[in-house]
UniProtKB/TrEMBL annotation:
This is non-reducing end alpha-L-arabinofuranosidase. It comes from Paenibacillus cremeus. Keywords: Carbohydrate metabolism, Glycosidase, Hydrolase. Pathway: Glycan metabolism. Signal peptide: none annotated.
Length: 364
């Protein structure tokens, strides 16, 4: 491979520092599927050989977010090989993996289940944290969520993952990774361009239609899904340090889950607050997980803030709305300016909508 790289004009190594050893090795769909014991043994062999070549690399071991696929996988792998890992990886796809939903599930029930993404992730991370805290030799570990997205059910022709509903769920997932950033250091959305139907940048619509009746043939049209606009928005916000907040709102029941969630009463609003690195911008990110409008009142009295703030909004008339080759910008981020009333902000949150409010801070 080195010779091939050199023949393509790159004689020097790429100096790649992050290496994940194996992919979903617990899964029968995966080449080289093995037991946890076999994986741990192989991992240690690869780790030793790779670090002998470059001691500065960071190694990621294969974990699972679905214990039912290989019961006890994470505990066995970590107990036997975790000391030689820098990260344990998870692939988390919200949908039928964790809730009994299918194409016949009533839309409102499906919406409630899908937007419970952060609570699902919190349970999975909590289980992993228990294992990590059980041994001193594991406490150095960080978590890498190397694949995540909504994956409603095995219907690859259906574009549920393109909807505003999916974007709201994915925004909540970003919130949870930020809340748990003391342990979660890597979060890779899957996929970026096309890939399976979950890719957030779409080139034409041939994948979704599989060139069946209804395929537009417009392979030159490039557009972002609703989730693309969420990821673009959050990537450009100044989210350096998480700030504690107190949230009071109505709750909802997401329905039966395959996981034992800590509560079946979930807050309709999912929110985080973060301060910029220079401590001059306070950002409040809110997802309204309700299908009704919600009156909001934010108290900024603990901060000296300017009264003019910038508001980013990702919304549409219906939670099933999505961008297509015919309407590539039906769902996108809009920017406006709002006025605070002294040290408070009152606003009517629209249903199934994602917001980010940026407020300038004089001092904390």
């Amino acid at each position: 491979m080195g010779a091939l790289r050199a023949s393509n004009g790159f004689p020097e190594p790429y100096d790649v520092k992050y290496w994940e050893i194996g992919n979903e090795m617990y899964g029968p769909w995966q080449a080289g599927v093995c037991t946890a014991e076999q994986y741990a043994k192989s991992y240690l062999v690869f780790a030793e050989a790779m670090r002998s070549s470059d001691p500065g690399i960071r190694l990621l071991g294969c974990g699972t977010a679905r214990d039912e696929l290989a019961p006890g996988w994470n505990r066995t792998v970590l107990e036997q090989a975790g000391h030689a890992m820098d990260y344990i990886t998870l692939h988390i796809y919200q949908g039928q993996n964790f809730f009994p939903i299918d194409a016949k599930t009533p839309p409102e029930a499906r919406f409630r289940a899908i937007t419970a993404f952060p609570e699902v992730v919190r349970e999975i991370l909590g289980q992993l944290e228990t294992i990590i805290q059980s041994s001193e030799k594991l406490k150095h570990l960080k978590i890498a969520v190397t694949e995540w997205n909504t994956l409603y059910f095995p219907n690859p022709d259906l574009t549920n993952a393109h909807t505003l509903e999916a974007a709201a769920a994915n925004a909540c997932m970003v919130h949870e990774m930020i809340r748990q950033s003391h342990r979660v250091e890597i979060g890779n959305y899957s996929d970026l361009v096309n890939g399976w139907v979950g890719g957030c940048i779409r080139v034409g619509d041939s994948y979704e239609r599989m060139k069946k009746p209804g395929w537009s043939g417009r392979s030159e049209v490039i557009f972002g899904t609703a989730t693309y606009h969420v990821l673009k928005l959050y990537a450009n916000l100044h989210l350096h340090r998480v700030i504690d907040l107190t949230l009071t709102c109505d709750s909802y029941d997401p329905g039966a889950s395959k996981l034992k969630l800590s509560s079946q009463s979930l807050a309709e609003l999912d929110a985080i607050a973060c301060l910029s690195e220079d401590e001059k911008v306070l950002t409040l990110c809110i997802v309204n997980r309700s299908l009704k409008s919600t009156a909001l009142c934010v108290d900024f009295s603990a901060w000296q803030v300017e009264t003019k703030a910038q508001l980013h909004t990702i919304s549409s008339l219906h939670y099933e709305d999505c961008n297509t080759v015919d309407e590539p910008e039906k769902v996108k981020a809009e920017v406006s300016f709002v006025e605070l009333l002294g040290d408070s902000w009152r606003f009517e949150l629209q249903p199934h909508t994602i917001y980010a409010l940026e407020v300038k801070v004089a001092s904390s």
